From TrEMBL:
Pfam families named in the record: HTH_17
InterPro entries to which the protein is assigned, alphabetical: DNA-bd_dom_put_sf, HTH_17, SinI_DNA-bd
UniProt-recorded name of the protein: Helix-turn-helix domain-containing protein
Signal peptide: none
Native source species: Intrasporangium calvum
Residues in Helix-turn-helix domain copies: 6-55
Length: 75
């Protein structure tokens, strides 16, 4: 059976970011997650992580399109 939820350490490894950055994404609500258990461990659903990655691709495309560089110089 495929894994449904990821720990923040796994999220940080997949995104190649620090654990603190993964925690900040979750706490800000930018990356949806749930808290479970008595100690309130954060878990991110695999589909939410994929949605987040797709949103970041879309935002990056939009940024690049609205901030072109390297075009012909005006004389």
């Amino acid at each position: 059976m495929a894994q449904r939820f990821l720990q923040l350490a796994e999220v940080s490894e997949i995104l190649n970011i620090s654990s603190a950055q993964a925690y900040a994404l979750v706490r800000s609500g930018e990356l949806p997650a749930i808290k479970i258990g008595g100690r309130g461990q954060w878990r991110v659903e695999v589909t939410e992580l994929e949605n987040y990655i797709q949103r970041m691709y879309a935002e990056t495309r939009s940024f690049v399109q609205s901030h072109p560089f390297g075009g012909a110089l005006e004389e």
